[in-house]
């Protein structure tokens, strides 16, 4: 009887989760073309990836983006969480404001921020113009494009991690902080030596969630830059998308997907290791 | 569920200084908080201002003058693009998915939590394991599958594959596990048919989780990009989110683009305005991610 209740979801999962997961592996060993014709080519797609300059660039872009985005978003969410935790004044209101961008789509964020960064008409350059800086074409220079996109994504998403961290802060036992206060610890010392160690598991969770998310970056780049200038914002998922739906090289695109899966898996396993040691 | 966030503030409640009241030049925490909030809200405010600004001239700082506000950008973008059709697509994609995911996930969650059947454990863990596989990694095979079913560019292809939602099943199972067994046993002894137990006992009890989960599923689908981009290949089958990206790519005048952007965000804002508490509390409690 129980099986009947699981049945609809089970069928959906078998067809649209398990089958594609297994399919991805097998496709990556073929040269499946849009015509449906394919040959088994073993690991050829993977050896091709190893020597593909575009893949190297996309991997480097993705890693660089992650290195910029993760600290940015974690600091932003930790900062706002600490502020919200300290300031009682209108806490619910401010929490709502910080959370607001999170309910919108990354496409919306990208459309707004593309205009904000615009060299001629953009809001940011108008503000910078007031102090005689610029105009800077943020999205057309290889040096500024990834940080600009990272800021957009961080703005869109930090509300989520902020809520997790805020809950973590509120779970720190009050007695610990009072004991430290009696011992004469300053505000900073209390934060550094009492709050932060207590917050570590939560902080780690946030770090891993954001890292996994960063490795899957695509939407913002698709909308804001089209991967440019000259592929300096061309991520792994962008490369996957193009290989699949621009060049219809489905086998090759599946191999890129498997590389992405491995990266996410490694990040998750490293997290389990480190958090496990914590307990 | 809500108590943890609603409990009294940890710090003694001293009347905090209002932003700007202090003149000493020292940056107080409330001031910093207010400043951060302003920076967070500016992009939205700018979007709305530009959407209502007259289309002539430089967009900034003309956009700031409320005397010139107009609805022209909205009427232009509505008549020159497929926004009405995209809105219907987005609503169908989101609402049908919410209804199906809530029904199927609570059925599966109930079975995993309270029913005994062969393979239950391994099936549940297999469901969970799919959480580890990023959607993009299976994008290509999913697309080929949908193409084989001849579902590309159709509502079937758009909606059905996205109903396999392991987070939803997991959440429902966790919640139903907490309900006392006696509730279901009593009904079973009375000989109530399984389906009636589900509709008359389980569904009413899980209403609060259904509400929360419903909001999340709605936002996942409303804001979803990659799958609708790949499946809705003709202009007619795009969702609003994909359509907005299309508009962006078509060099639509900035005022009209922002008017379009404003239209796409209205449902999310409605959900946010009405149900913010549900959203924020459930994230803090369960780490559910939209």
From TrEMBL, chain A:
Segments traversing the membrane: 58-84, 96-116, 122-139, 202-224, 250-270
Ranges for domain ABC transmembrane type-1: 59-271
Glycoprotein found in the keyword field: no
Name of one Pfam family that matches: BPD_transp_1
Record-stated family: Belongs to the binding-protein-dependent transport system permease family.
Membrane topology annotation: Multi-pass membrane protein
Primary location group: membrane
Lineage of origin: Bacteria, Bacillati, Actinomycetota, Actinomycetes, Propionibacteriales
Keywords: Cell membrane, Membrane, Transmembrane, Transmembrane helix, Transport
Entry annotated with the keyword Transmembrane helix: yes
Protein name listed in UniProt: Carbohydrate ABC transporter membrane protein 1 (CUT1 family)
InterPro entries in the record: ABC_transporter_permease, MetI-like, MetI-like_sf
Localization (cell): Cell membrane
Gene3D superfamilies: MetI-like
From TrEMBL, chain B:
PROSITE patterns tied to this protein: ABC_TM1
InterPro entries: MetI-like, MetI-like_sf
Subcellular location: Cell membrane
Source organism superkingdom: Bacteria
Main location: membrane
This protein's UniProt keywords: Cell membrane, Membrane, Sugar transport, Transmembrane, Transmembrane helix, Transport
Topology in membrane: Multi-pass membrane protein
Entry's transmembrane regions: 31-53, 91-112, 124-144, 156-176, 197-220, 257-275
Occurrences of domain ABC transmembrane type-1 (ranges): 87-275
Keyword set includes Cytoplasm: no
Family named by the database record: Belongs to the binding-protein-dependent transport system permease family.
Name of the protein described by the UniProt record: Multiple sugar transport system permease protein
Organism: Kribbella pratensis
């Amino acid at each position: 009887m129980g099986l009947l209740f699981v049945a609809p979801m089970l069928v959906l999962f078998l067809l649209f989760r398990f089958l594609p997961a297994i399919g991805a592996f097998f496709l990556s060993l073929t040269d499946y073309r849009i015509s449906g014709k394919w040959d088994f080519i073993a690991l050829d797609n993977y050896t091709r990836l190893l020597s593909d300059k575009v893949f190297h660039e996309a991997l480097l872009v993705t890693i660089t983006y992650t290195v910029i985005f993760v600290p940015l978003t974690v600091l932003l969410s930790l900062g706002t969480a600490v502020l919200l935790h300290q300031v009682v004044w209108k806490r619910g209101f401010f929490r709502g404001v910080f959370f607001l961008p999170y309910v919108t789509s990354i496409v919306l964020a990208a459309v707004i921020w593309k205009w904000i960064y615009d060299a001629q008409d953009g809001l940011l350059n108008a503000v910078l113009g007031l102090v005689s800086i610029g105009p800077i074409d943020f999205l057309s220079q290889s040096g500024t494009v990834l940080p600009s996109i990272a800021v957009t994504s961080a703005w869109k998403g930090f509300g989520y991690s902020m809520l997790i961290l805020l809950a973590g802060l509120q779970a720190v036992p009050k007695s610990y902080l009072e004991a430290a206060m009696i011992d004469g610890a300053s505000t900073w010392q209390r934060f550094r030596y009492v709050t932060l160690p207590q917050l570590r598991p939560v902080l780690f969770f946030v770090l891993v969630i954001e890292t996994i998310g960063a490795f899957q970056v695509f939407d913002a780049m698709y909308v804001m830059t089209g991967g440019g200038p000259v592929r300096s914002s061309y991520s792994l998922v962008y490369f996957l998308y193009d290989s699949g739906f621009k060049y219809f090289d489905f086998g090759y695109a599946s191999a890129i997907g498997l590389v992405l899966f491995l990266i996410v898996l490694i990040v998750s396993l490293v997290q389990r290791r480190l958090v496990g040691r914590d307990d | 569920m809500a108590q943890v966030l609603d409990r009294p503030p940890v710090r003694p409640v001293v009347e905090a200084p209002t932003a700007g009241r202090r003149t000493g030049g020292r940056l107080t925490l409330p001031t910093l908080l207010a400043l951060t909030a302003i920076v967070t809200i500016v992009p939205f405010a700018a979007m709305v201002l530009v959407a209502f600004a007259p289309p002539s001239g430089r967009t900034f700082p003309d956009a700031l003058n409320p005397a010139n506000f107009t609805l022209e950008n909205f009427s232009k973008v509505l008549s020159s693009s497929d926004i009405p059709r995209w809105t219907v697509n987005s609503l169908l994609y989101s609402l049908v998915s919410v209804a199906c995911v809530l029904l199927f996930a609570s059925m599966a969650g109930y079975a995993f939590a309270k029913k005994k059947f062969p393979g239950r454990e391994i099936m549940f863990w297999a469901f969970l394991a799919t959480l580890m596989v990023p959607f993009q990694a299976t994008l290509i095979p999913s697309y080929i599958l949908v193409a084989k079913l001849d579902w590309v560019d159709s509502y079937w292809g758009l909606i059905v594959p996205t109903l396999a939602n392991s987070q939803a099943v997991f959440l429902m199972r966790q919640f139903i596990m907490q309900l006392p067994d006696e509730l279901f046993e009593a009904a079973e002894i009375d000989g109530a048919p399984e389906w009636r137990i589900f509709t008359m006992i389980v569904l009413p009890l899980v209403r609060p989780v259904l509400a929360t989960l419903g909001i999340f599923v709605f936002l996942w689908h409303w804001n979803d990009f990659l799958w609708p981009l790949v499946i809705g290949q003709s202009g007619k089958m795009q969702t609003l989110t994909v359509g907005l990206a299309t508009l962006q790519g078509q060099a639509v005048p900035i005022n009209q683009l922002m008017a379009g952007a404003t239209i796409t965000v209205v449902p999310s804002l409605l959900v946010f305005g009405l149900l913010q508490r549900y959203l924020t509390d459930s994230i803090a409690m369960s780490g559910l991610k939209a």
